[in-house]
Specification:
Pfam family, one: IstB_IS21
Oligomer: single chain
GO molecular function: ATP binding
Number of strands: 5
CATH architecture of the largest domain: 3-Layer(aba) Sandwich
Largest sheet: 5 strands, parallel
Protein name: DNA replication protein DnaC
Organism: Ferrovum myxofaciens
Keywords: ATP-binding, Nucleotide-binding
Number of domains: 2
CATH superfamily of the largest domain: P-loop containing nucleotide triphosphate hydrolases
Structural class: alpha/beta
């Protein structure tokens, strides 16, 4: 009798129920469960397992280089950081509000901008949102290659589809006109549709130097990016040089 049942449960994609219905049936008497109790426990287990698999898929799809959390962020290291403002981001109003808001994390290298962006993205995955983490250079290289092979539209879709796009390290390397135009396409097409988190080591007045000193394009890009945006400025010395500082 169990073989047809196993087959039915497999065809219905109910792996938890298939694996546990026998074991749970043995405790029905011990726990004085009704048929409804028994069924409820199986369904609850199925839901929890599906949620776990969904979270794992979202985290894998996000392509985080490492996993970071807000809990292990070193608040005491930056000289200046608005802790309350950062923590408020994890309520995800910028993602779920009526109009999505971009988040720009500005500061020198080694102050935790990438850490915070990954923590934000990872928490978003846990809460059911699709996320993609990438660097500005990777976006430009990928889209430039796609453009030369006639696949730009398909590749652009990868950056437009996620509920949250995280672009790390904008400004660490200069971007030529083609790269700036490609990045502009992503920002303009996500404008007022879905938010972007950007980490950068350059304040806005220096962004023209990132984009080949093209002030017109830079102005148009900032206009869209900052129309609905929250800027977090982090100031201080690089966390990576902390040990060197303590040694001296």
């Amino acid at each position: 009798m169990t073989d047809p049942l196993d087959s039915h449960l497999e065809s219905l994609h109910l792996p938890y129920t298939r694996q546990h219905y026998t074991a749970l049936s043995k405790v029905v008497g011990e726990r004085s469960w009704s048929c409804i109790d028994y069924l409820e426990n199986l369904i609850q287990g199925e839901i929890e397992e599906r949620n776990t698999r969904s979270i794992q898929r979202r985290i894998a799809a996000a392509r985080f280089p490492v996993i970071k959390s807000l809990e292990n962020f070193q608040w005491s290291w930056p000289k200046t950081i608005d802790r309350e403002k950062v923590q408020s981001l994890f309520r995800f109003g910028f993602l779920t509000g009526e109009l999505p808001s971009n988040i720009i994390l500005v500061g020198n290298v080694g102050l935790g901008k990438t850490h915070l962006s990954i923590a934000l993205g990872h928490t978003a995955c846990l809460r059911g949102h699709s996320v993609l983490f990438t660097t500005a250079v990777d976006i430009i290289n990928t889209l430039a290659a796609a453009q030369s092979s006639g696949r730009l539209k398909q590749e652009l879709a990868r950056y437009l589809k996620p509920a949250l796009l995280i672009i790390d390290e904008l400004g660490y390397l200069p971007i030529d006109k083609q790269g700036a135009d490609l990045l502009f396409q992503i920002i303009s097409q996500r404008y007022e549709r879905a938010p972007i988190v950007i980490t950068t080591n350059r304040t806005y007045k220096h962004w023209s130097s990132i984009f080949n000193n093209d002030s017109t394009l830079t102005s148009a890009l900032l206009d869209r990016l900052l129309h609905h945006a929250e800027t977090i400025v982090i100031d201080g010395k690089s966390y990576r040089t902390r040990d060197d500082i303590h040694d001296h």
